[in-house]
Write a structure and sequence with these properties.
By secondary structure, this protein is an all-alpha fold. Among the domains are: about 45 residues; about 35 residues. Helices cover about 50% and strands about 0% of the residues. The two termini are about 50 Å apart.
């Protein structure tokens, strides 16, 4: 039930340098650059700090066996949709059926309120 762990990626020096240069040349923020390179913004921030402190040598991967050249991490996996208590998945129903279901639920809620109002007046 724990958190899924991703495999740690080591980015190449060229990839890091490209991201850092994008921050300096285009004046972009860390988050915007991170979105473009599909990495976390804190990674871009760390790379910029390493570049300022040590130059290009500071961006060399420390102990990478294989380097990841780009395109960012794989998109997160979507959880499979679970059926509700009735045994179906609402989002997979045809739109006409979903609209009818929504209408019937609203009508049911209205009738419950009217019924409660009538009962309260009878007392």
């Amino acid at each position: 039930m724990g958190k899924e762990t991703r495999k740690k990626r080591y980015y190449s020096q060229a990839f890091k340098l490209q991201a850092v240069k994008r921050v300096f040349k285009d004046g972009r923020g860390f988050r915007e650059t991170a979105r473009e390179f599909k990495v976390n913004h804190s990674m871009v921030q760390r790379w910029v700090r390493q570049y300022i402190e040590s130059g290009e040598a500071g961006l060399k991967p420390a102990r990478a066996k294989s380097l990841y050249e780009g395109e960012g991490p794989a998109p997160p996996r979507k959880r499979p949709k679970k059926p509700n208590a009735k045994g179906y998945i609402e989002s997979e129903l045809p739109e006409v059926v979903r609209n009818e279901l929504r209408h019937l639920r609203m009508e049911n809620a209205y009738l419950k309120k009217v019924s409660a109002l009538v009962r309260s007046r009878e007392r």
